[in-house]
Amino acid sequence: MMKVMMANTVGRLCFRQKNILAPMVRVGTLPMRLLALDYGADIVYCEELIDIKMAQCERVENDVLQTIDFVAPDERVMFRTCSKESGRVVFQMGTADPERALAVAKLVENDVAAVDVNMGCPKEYSTKGGMGSALLSDPEKIEAILTTLVKGISKPVTCKIRILSTIEDTVNLVKRIEKTGVAAIAVHGRMKDERPRHPVHCDYIQAVAQSVSVPVIANGGSSDIVKEFEDIETFRESTGASSVMLARAAMWNPSVFRQQGALSVDQVMQEYITYAVRYDNNPFNTKYCLCQMLRDRVESPFGKRLHAAQTNQEICEVFGMTELFNKTTAELESRRASLQASEDL
Ligand code: FNR
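Output (structure tokens, whole complex):
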């Protein structure tokens, strides 16, 4: 019995004392996740992927890129992962349906370290389908989804919530969530109607952290509290949470996770592009992420040149990285050719 229990827990992702890249639509694709890990993030969440779309995907082993791709019927790669992030990548989904959530979790479970359910997104596209923050007013649905996932897959299950209007309601909800057997709960310290400009409620996160034993991940501290690496610890201490999750601070400069101090955004953008080319990232996604890092400079002549680029090759030209582009694509092309040759034998 003991052996069986150990086999099930050994190697499971632990959510205590971790610095985590938050889930971010469009931002949290493979290049950003790998970069955040390189700089020191312990765990990286992918962007939220909607269960209905994921359920239609096929799992494809991409031998040229050495990735696992989840490909939609229209050929779009919805989720791409690789061994460099294995054991540290959390798959976040948007769902309002326990069975569909389970089907998607089973589809990805062997390629990810944990599965998370987004219960905080206040955008209409999420809430009108009963997903995201709409779940916060339906605790029975939350329990049904999380219990189904916890029972149905062998990987840890987590969820990410926003706070409710009172501390008491928030604590009660989190206690109910804890009972489902989740491995961690990320708490974005804002109510669903609050925007990023509103201050984060550290007192709510603290009350939650004090009342449950499951690891609590504090979120919402970018810009108010977390501007550089040392501030991560300040945020952890002011919330009493186990772990800290960063979204905007990491989107603006993922080297915020670097203990030795942040690198210049220009260097980070070059390192981002290196991954984007190596993993054949969608160029519009690459551009979007680079624009988030450029921030005010997006309107500069340089920003406008980036904006005009349509391919990863053109993006590389803007950044003076043509040599890197040519070298990487030649390597990928030669791998493709040798795979083709061995298939033809
Ligand atoms: C987000 N956020 C978010 N949350 C989530 O659970 N799933 C998601 O896919 C997204 N997408 C997303 C995209 C972008 C561009 C931003 C800026 C934010 C919310 C995010 O994870 C986080 O909860 C908030 O940004 C607060 O944390 P910070 O920014 O203060 O660290």
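The chain has 15 helices and twelve strands.
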